[in-house]
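Sample intake sheet
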Amino acid sequence: MNGSEFNWSEFFHMGGYAVFVWTSYGLALLMVVVNIVSPIIERKRVIARVKRAIKREALREQNKS
């Protein structure tokens, strides 16, 4: 099969298994994206929580003085 005989329709149909194959690819891509984005979001939450705790402690120290 050379380049001129390649049929994109057949490639995307995948011999009747396209639904299963493309769903698997889609789910795998989704999991990769979730595994990249989730730690980034959690890191931002932790940083915000630590900043609030630092401010709270600083206010407590000011109020004691």
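Comment: The mean pLDDT is 91. The two ends are 83 Å apart (CA to CA).
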